[in-house]
């Protein structure tokens, strides 16, 4: 019996030793496994926290003009810009021990497990904010063991590499609040029509309850459920010491107004402009399509929303609805090249083709100022005269070319360069072009004015038969307006990534390309299209809109059979308009031919309405003298028409006009009539008989 008892005791001891050894081995394995997991998480490093979110485009006034349409509304805001009440409400209802645990709340997990066992079903969750954040960032929402293990690893990596503030900020910016709103900023704007930092306690408590079941607790779809959830959260906040019982009861009684609209709608403002911006992000900044569409970028643009609205309204007002005429329009700031407005067509939905930047159309006479700038550099002056008459030119051996003026009208006499511009004389332009050499305009347009389409070496190129883009032509005129500085069209000033880091910032470098004195002389000549003093065989080309122009403007119109242009500027703003048919059909109706000029002048007047009236300031190297505009000679008091004209110093005329000498002398006094000394009765006789 004693032997049996001893044998049993020895077996028991063996089992105990084995159990202890197994326990120790298990503990070692668990510890080793834990160390291994922690080591793996540390080696993997911090996971990226970026999530798909809408890219926002801002106008120059800081207002959102558009966003990418990914089906999700996400706008990242820093924790400091989120209502403290919402932060407290979220922590109270979602993860009370958020600041104490390291990603996993073991006490809460044990409590949830016990509750599930009692109910024999999944009745209580135990996920911390860190776990939910990991799930939202990287994982699907299936319930497999593989997903749960991955979630645990991501949670560890987040907790080991990011602060609690960063985790909480990320969670609040990624959690789904229903109705396509991801993150607290999008949700605040959707439900309450305000930013996340302006939420009241009542609104914050209601919003914090939505993520548990967005459709069930949506204050828009289920106001009763949302209200009960809000009251539960307020009670929880009271228990956690975030507010008093009195504050809780007062807040429960406060009414809440629900908005139900997203803050930013899909492309409505300046859709053609926005297309250009996205293209620049792709081609010039090298950003991938996914980054542009879902990278949460903040793209700050040059668009002046006031200018854009005016441009769109003017186009709609001026062009008859039934007309098939299309247009391209661009306005720019002369000083820095900022594009302030753009219209690429009459209806973006019908035709997203951007005629302001994509269409290449004949610029007509709007090319002439580029030609005449070169002429000024080569010795021409506003007083240089050439004969305006029907002329047949011979070029390239035996080829003939006979340019015609509008309506086949000619001076059949000498006219000045100033008149040639104001009247848009074609013969003068071709003579100048051939005199300087046909390659001069080609080189000038490309090298000095930045025209991206080649100007062909033909006599007719002086009349704008080589195609050009609206954006290029407006930018060329910008150089006259700013005194000869080369500035390229600018659409984007700055780009920030989802976390606010600046990834691009535009630096406007001004390079003096044109001679400032010559540029000013050219500008003053371009003001002549509105001055009837330059009328001759025809009226100046801006006469139709002169009555509508209340400021100092300079510009040039252009006309071909299929294209109408008007480009002009004030010291503060440059704008250009092209109108025509997409298929190049001839423009025959008089009203259709006037659209470009009318759109231009109305836009300029409205856009500058609140700006001070400024004149073009003469440069130091020019001198102004009164000349007879018909012959370019210094005017005398006898000249019936005089125009104050600017010249580069040293090139002003020195010869006085002698054509009208004596024409305006004062009339000689008549000799006094001799006194009639007849007596009265003889006067009566003479009167009767």
From TrEMBL:
InterPro entries: Beta-lactam/transpept-like, Glyco_trans_51, Glycosyltr_51/Transpeptidase, Lysozyme-like_dom_sf, PBP_transglycosylase, PCN-bd_Tpept. It comes from the Bacteria. Its main location: membrane. Keywords: Carboxypeptidase, Cell membrane, Cell shape, Cell wall biogenesis/degradation, Glycosyltransferase, Hydrolase, Membrane, Multifunctional enzyme, Peptidoglycan synthesis, Protease, Transferase. The keyword Lipid metabolism does not apply. The lineage of its organism: Bacteria, Bacillati, Bacillota, Bacilli, Bacillales. Coiled coil: none annotated. The keyword GTP-binding does not apply. It holds the Pfam family Transpeptidase. Residues 329-580 form the Penicillin-binding protein transpeptidase domain. It catalyses: Preferential cleavage: (Ac)2-L-Lys-D-Ala-|-D-Ala. Also transpeptidation of peptidyl-alanyl moieties that are N-acyl substituents of D-alanine; [GlcNAc-(1->4)-Mur2Ac(oyl-L-Ala-gamma-D-Glu-L-Lys-D-Ala-D-Ala)](n)-di-trans,octa-cis-undecaprenyl diphosphate + beta-D-GlcNAc-(1->4)-Mur2Ac(oyl-L-Ala-gamma-D-Glu-L-Lys-D-Ala-D-Ala)-di-trans,octa-cis-undecaprenyl diphosphate = [GlcNAc-(1->4)-Mur2Ac(oyl-L-Ala-gamma-D-Glu-L-Lys-D-Ala-D-Ala)](n+1)-di-trans,octa-cis-undecaprenyl diphosphate + di-trans,octa-cis-undecaprenyl diphosphate + H(+). Residues 61-237 form the Glycosyl transferase family domain. This is PBP1A family penicillin-binding protein. It is found in: Cell membrane.
């Amino acid at each position: 019996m004693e032997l049996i008892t001893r044998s049993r005791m020895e077996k028991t001891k063996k089992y105990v030793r084995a159990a202890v050894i197994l326990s120790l081995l298990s503990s070692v394995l668990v510890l080793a496994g834990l160390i291994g997991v922690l080591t793996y998480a540390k080696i993997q490093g911090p996971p990226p926290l970026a999530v798909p979110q809408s890219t926002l485009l801002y106008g120059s006034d800081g207002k959102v003009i558009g966003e990418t349409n990914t089906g999700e509304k996400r706008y990242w805001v820093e924790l400091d810009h989120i209502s403290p009440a919402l932060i407290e409400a979220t922590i109270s209802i979602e993860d009370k021990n958020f600041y104490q645990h390291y990603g996993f709340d073991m006490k809460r997990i044990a409590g949830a497990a016990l509750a599930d066992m009692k109910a024999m079903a999944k009745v209580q969750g135990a996920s911390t904010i860190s776990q939910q954040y990991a799930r939202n960032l990287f994982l699907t929402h299936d319930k497999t063991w593989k997903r749960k293990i991955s979630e645990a690893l991501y949670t560890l990596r987040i907790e080991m590499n990011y602060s609690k503030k960063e985790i909480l900020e990320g969670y609040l910016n990624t959690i789904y609040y229903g109705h396509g709103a991801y993150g607290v900023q999008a949700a605040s704007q959707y439900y309450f029509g305000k930013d996340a930092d302006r939420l009241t306690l009542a609104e914050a408590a209601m919003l914090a309850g939505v993520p548990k079941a967005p459709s069930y607790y949506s204050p828009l779809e289920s106001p009763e459920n949302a209200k009960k959830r809000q009251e539960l959260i307020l009670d929880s906040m009271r228990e956690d010491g975030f507010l008093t019982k009195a504050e809780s009861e007062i807040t429960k009684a406060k009414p809440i107004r629900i908005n139900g609209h997203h803050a930013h709608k899909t492309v409505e403002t300046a859709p053609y402009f926005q297309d250009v911006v996205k293209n620049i992000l792709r081609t010039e900044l090298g950003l991938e399509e996914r980054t542009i569409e879902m990278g949460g970028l903040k793209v700050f643009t040059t668009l002046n929303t006031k200018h854009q609205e005016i441009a769109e309204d003017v186009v709609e007002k001026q062009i008859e609805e039934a007309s098939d005429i299309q247009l391209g329009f661009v306005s720019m700031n002369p000083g820095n090249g900022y594009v302030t407005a753009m219209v690429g067509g009459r209806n973006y939905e019908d035709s997203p083709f951007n005629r302001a930047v994509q269409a290449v159309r004949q610029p007509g006479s709007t090319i002439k100022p580029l030609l005449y700038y070169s002429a000024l550099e080569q010795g021409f002056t506003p007083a240089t005269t050439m004969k305006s008459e029907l002329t047949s030119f011979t070029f390239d051996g035996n080829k003939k070319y006979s340019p015609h003026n509008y309506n086949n009208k000619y001076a059949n006499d000498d006219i000045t360069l100033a008149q040639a511009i104001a009247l848009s004389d074609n013969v003068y332009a071709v003579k100048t072009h051939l005199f300087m050499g046909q390659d001069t305009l080609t080189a000038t347009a490309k090298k000095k004015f930045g025209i991206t389409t080649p100007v062909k070496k033909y006599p007719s190129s002086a009349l704008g038969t080589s195609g050009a883009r609206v954006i290029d032509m407006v930018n060329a005129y910008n150089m006259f307006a700013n005194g000869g500085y080369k500035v390229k069209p600018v659409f984007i000033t700055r780009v920030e990534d989802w976390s606010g880091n600046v990834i691009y910032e535009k630096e406007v470098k001004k390079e003096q390309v044109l001679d400032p004195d010559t540029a000013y002389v050219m500008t003053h000549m371009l003001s002549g299209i509105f001055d009837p003093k330059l009328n001759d065989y025809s009226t100046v080309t801006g006469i139709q809109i002169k009555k509508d122009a209340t400021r100092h403007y300079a510009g040039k119109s252009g006309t071909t059979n299929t294209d109408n242009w008007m480009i002009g500027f004030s010291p503060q703003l440059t704008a250009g308009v092209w109108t025509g048919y997409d298929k190049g059909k001839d423009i025959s109706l008089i009203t259709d031919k006037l659209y470009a000029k009318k759109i231009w002048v109305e836009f300029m007047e409205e856009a500058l309405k609140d700006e001070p009236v400024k004149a073009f300031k003469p440069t130091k190297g020019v001198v102004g003298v009164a000349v007879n505009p018909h012959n370019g000679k210094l005017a005398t008091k006898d000249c019936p028409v005089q125009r104050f004209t600017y010249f580069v110093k040293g090139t002003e005329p020195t010869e006085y006009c002698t054509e009208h000498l004596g024409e305006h002398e004062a009339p000689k006094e008549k000799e006094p009539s001799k006194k009639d000394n007849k007596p009265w009765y003889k006067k009566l006789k003479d009167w009767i008989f």
